[in-house]
Amino acid sequence: MGHRSVAKELYRLAADGIRYGTIAYADASGGVGEGLLLWYAGITTKDRNATEHALDYLTRLAKKPRIKSWPGPLAQFVLERQSFNEVLRDSFKTDNLLETAEQAKSEILKRRACSSLICFRNEVSTTARQKWLSSSFAAMCAT
Fold first, then answer.
1. What is the distance in angstroms between the CA of the first residue and the CA of the last residue of the chain?
2. Which structural domain range is residue 95 located in?
3. Alpha-carbon distance 23 to 105, whole Å?
4. What DSSP state is assigned to residue 101?
5. How far apart are alpha carbons 82 and 117 in whole angstroms?
6. pLDDT per residue over 3-25, tens digit each?
7. Using CA atoms, how far apart are residues 143 and 130, in angstroms rounded to an integer?
């Protein structure tokens, strides 16, 4: 707690290490987790550079087939390439949140995926993403 700038730097270093090959191992999606952490940290601290860096990193990873592995679908949601319901349907074979919760009760990996998806949806709402995108657009137009 209280070391947000250090955390953001660690997330950035991890993402860059995966991107440039100095870190050889990543999650099944090719390192999406590190990019999501950096994006979340950037959004919640209103750090445009961290957020843009994360979005660039996630966009590059989204071009690869590994993006279909979890937490790749969560990145697709962040990049606004999939809706919340599409991620539910693709990841849990249903877009019904109650059915998803039932699956999560008995399967630990689905529980983790469901928790992270709901956390991202609740903590960083579409409104927050839209505010950030519109402020970035306004900043580009002002220059």
1. 36
2. 4-142
3. 34
4. H
5. 12
6. 888 999 999 999 999 999 899 88
7. 20
Contact predicate 51/132, CB 8 Å: yes
- Provide the token pair at 60: 């590059």
Tell me how many domains the chain contains: 1
Alpha-carbon distances, residue 26 vs 7, 39, 105, 120 (angstroms): 18, 17, 27, 21
Quick check: 70 and 113 in contact, CB under 8 A? yes
Length of the chain: 143
Query: Token digits for 11?
Result: 């997330």
Below-50 pLDDT ranges, the chain: 127, 137-143
Q: 3-state DSSP call for residue 23?
A: coil
Question: What pLDDT is attached to residue 66?
Answer: 93
Looking at residue 25, its amino acid is: Y
Using only C-alpha atoms, the chain has a radius of gyration, in whole angstroms, of 16
